[in-house]
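[scheduler] slot 2 assigned
[scheduler] job type: sequence-to-structure, two independent chains
[scheduler] chain ordering preserved from manifest
[runner] begin chain α
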Amino acid sequence: MSIKDVKKRFKWTPELFIALLYMNFGLLWIFYSDQLLGQFQTLKGFAYVFLTGILLFFLVRFFQKSLQKQSQHYRFLFENNPVPMWYCDPQNGQIRECNLAASQKYGYSAERFREMKLSDLEKPPQTQAQNAWLSGQSKVIVVHLNSKNQILDIQLHFQNSPEGLLVSAFDLIEHKQIEAQLFSDKKNLEFFQSTVRSASVIAVLDKESKVIEANAHLIRLSGLSQNELLGRRLGGLWIKQTPEWSQVLKQLEKGRQIQAEMELVHGWVGYLLLNYQTGQEGPTYLLLGQEISQQKRAQTELWALTAKLVEQNQDLQQFTYLVSHNLRVPVANILGLLALLESPTGQEETFSEEQTELLEKLKLSAERMDQDLIALHERLHHQGRSQKERSWIDLTAIIEDVLSELNHFLPDPHWRPELDLKVTQINSIAVYLHSILLNLVSNALKYKDPQRPLTLKISVKAEQGFWVFELQDNGLGIDLKAHATEIFGLYQRFHTQIEGHGLGLYLVKTQTEMLGGQIHVESTPGQGSRFQLSFPIVATEIEPSESAIS
């Protein structure tokens, strides 16, 4: 090992210098003290103690100065740290000293801080920080109040030190804002990198939007030659531009990157425009883009399809309006004829009791149809105001109305479904809800299993923001493995031996969705079916006449 290597390994410090000096002094004393002071032993000892004391004095003094410098250095770091910090008693939390950042953050002077305890900074209850420290936690999130009683979300960090418990306060709101800014910057960078990698259209523009450089793809889309394109303004190339170039330029002058679209002769381009560099002749801009002609064509087709659907929907509404209006005429005639039969001419006495009962049921059915047509007419007339047409509906009453209409289907006049109504009233559109229940109960009655008595359970409850209806029967059931995709289709029938039109479940699903709800079905052949419908609970200013939830 060379002398240079030895010098590199040894770091010359004051401590090493003093140790070597003391060692040299000791060796010299051992070798020469007897020769110089051999006859004066007392003087020899006195001289040794004196010289050693002087040496120790300078050593202690040196280390005291060193500690003072370190203390001043740490004091400087504490005072000028941008993070609010203070020292406090680890047992009772009495604050002993704070730095400038703490005074600025909380609005208290250093003298006021020294009069406070750690708990005095907290929003009541005021023991969270102290309890966290005493329980061994190194950090805790608390809510502090500054001198103006403003709330601060703070994360406190604890650390033991010779001066006491060192507490550092980090503002979580500022931390979240910095994180959000970093996240935004990261996203912008990722978007820029992705755009550069995938760009198929590239150009460099001057401050007047003239094309300085352009790649082959942009030249092709512009319909010009390279010589014709270079030097031409971007505004002279496009057929349509969103947003306008003047608005784009204002954003660019603020240092922002711009996303825009333009239509050229041979297609659409979606592009990113950003500041490229600034020279003596002014700023230049970089255009990075992709051809989006196919997406634009698809968008145009979608708009055309939407317009067509709107038109068809309007035609369908008009047709339904006419049908609902025209159907009221024969219904009114039926009601008129029934009124004539019941007129006080004595003719009603010629009817038997059974005929009179049948006429009464016919009258009830006709009146119900008339009410439904009126409601449908009003619904179509006030299209777009369905929220105002909602009302609180008594579920027990509407189920009784449904059973009354289906009286001729009931196994016997006293048969009733099993009801489990945890909700007795819901806010909905009565005509739709009545139709949904009518179709589901009608299906349960029509498709009952002839081998066993019919049971039908209807339950309603409020759950996680929805009205949830469940109807479960023990009827013939449906083979969902074979008909899962057809069950709610138009004119779909699954038991051809029983008369029907295949409209019921289609209407149930359509009307459920018009109410913003969803429908789910479980069914097993020979065991029965279970329908679950969920409707969103819509806030309304109109309160129910009674408690809606029992």
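[runner] end chain α
[runner] begin chain β
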Amino acid sequence: MSDFLLKTPFFRLLMALAIGIGLYVAIGWSVAGLAVFVGVSLSLIITYLLFKKRTDTNHISGITIMLIILAFGYWLAYRYDNAIPRFEQNNKSGIFAVELTQYPIEKQRSVLVYADLIQYSDSSSTEYTKGKIVLYLQKDSIAMSLKSGDRLMVATTISLPEPTGNPDEFDFGRHLLRKGICGIGYASTDSWKRIGENRGFSLLRVAQRCRMYTLDILSDMNITGDEFAVISALTLGYTDAISPELNDSFALTGASHILSVSGLHVGVIYIMLGMLLAFLDKSPRTTRLKWILIIAFLWFYAFITGLSPSVSRSVFMFSTFALAKIIDRKSSIYNNIFFSAFVLLIINPMWLLNVGFQLSYSALLSIIYFQPKIYNLLYVKNKFIDYCWSLTSVSFAAQLGAAPICIYYFHQFPNYFLLANFIGVPLSGIIIYLDAALLIIHKMPIVSDIISFLLIWATKIMNGGLKIIEGFYFVSSRIWINMLQLVLIYISVFALGALFYKIRYRDFVVLFVALILNFSINIYHKISNADFGELVVFKSNREIAVNYIENRHNRLITSDIDNAKRMIANFWTHYHLPPPLYWDIDTVWGINVFVYDRRNFVLLTSSNIYQTYAKRPLETDYLIVTRGVLPSDNLFKYYFAPKSLIITSDVTAKNRQKFSQIAKDRNIEYHSIAKSGAFRLKPDNR
């Protein structure tokens, strides 16, 4: 271990920087905390200066440097987070002048654009403003024709990114804030117009236009549908054309890493360039030229993919490898990896929390360390079998590093990942090579048609193979782990790595204890959740979802089963719940009635109730009202007499205000899911 630390100084620096960033994320900004770090560091520096000639003080200087880097990471995270503009008031309405920073992204019901704020106006004033926002424009051909650099005048309301408010759901609001996005808005067709474009030079804008040009080449070659989506994602990092169904297929089979340009794809290009330029390995001077050309080609590739953060990170990482070759420095490959991560976190400290960043480095480090050791466990003479074994060893090594992170964030493990990689990895390499050839010779009629044909069928075979695997029984396992279990899993991986290096009793003990603790925590969670019960009305603007669990019976009332499953799956996995029994929304009268924990519930989804005559209002404990119900005092005067009123998040702000006033006048307990998050009710212990 000491030898490893000696050869990889950037490992220690990276750990200190990451801990500092993590402390800010965990506890927020504290001047007193930063003062403690700085004070201890100064004390250690003084101690080092006073006693450096009398005794060995190297450990004091090392600790001092680590504390300084830790404090630096803490301050960096604070500075980055503090630089994100926050509106003084949420739901700020007015007329905003904005400039698009990316090309529009077509969604199912709208067009999404990323934009920079330029100016804000209302009835009383005009002021310059800054910040990055997300706008959802009404879907039409005009919105889809926009491009990066266009300037719009938009009449809208900008709201702060907020937590989803649902249990165990991905926090999209926090995700946007970490990306520097300070607001979200929606504009219909008649509430925005294009007022010009930024004609100044922007390297990022030129890069995005290059990517759109290359995407147009694929379209011109009659590459459409899922084939276009996979090829554009795999080679150009353009993931906006991927349908939810296609994304689920890749995720379930363990091939989702293929759909996002990362270290795997850049590594393929890095190796390909090394092979193509191998003729330059004749002298030290031409060898340096080779690695300079590789760096240039890698950044050119990043440029035509639009200089997206994920691609740029991977290209920077491999550029450090090539740079080490240029300066002829025989440094540790691990030190080069840690150096690249250290620099990237200085550029953007919030990348530490980015799943893609974590997966790229964990998978790469695991492949570099474990793959040769796993491969050497079996010697095979047959070249084809040897190739299969080599691919198997890479897959196993990558899973050792990346699987714990995938399980922690996405809560599923693909049981057939090995089979999926046998199909996906070789074919993805072939697709990258064919697409590169097509982009180069696309103007040569016959040859380009042949390449296009081969490219389409290679993609069809890959998609079809993964679709077959998706249909296998028990294709994936739903697993829930917490942060402590994630740490224990990586302790197990490190102990296993140490045993591969040298078999020692201590490492066996560490591996055994970490595994036992992990299993014990999992068993404890299952036992503690054995009698779990709860009713949840989920927050969603797209579908109605009322989930109630009692005596391990899981029931879900929903208007859209597929979307509801995506939203609630993590919640079910967390509490080890069985698949639910689905109930459809009543579409005749819009009334669903059910009982939970001896309390009566009515789910009202339509105003058709007003067409009936009632002698007296129905008494109920809870009335759940959705967008389809018009607010009226008559609803409570003639039809329902609830103790509590729950308003779902799809109800408009105007109608929520009316329902709130009615509830206040009638002394009814009121819960707005849009404002307070999902409604959750635990059973009484009666």
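[runner] end chain β
[qc] chain β: The first strand starts at residue 92 and ends at 100.
[scheduler] slot 2 released
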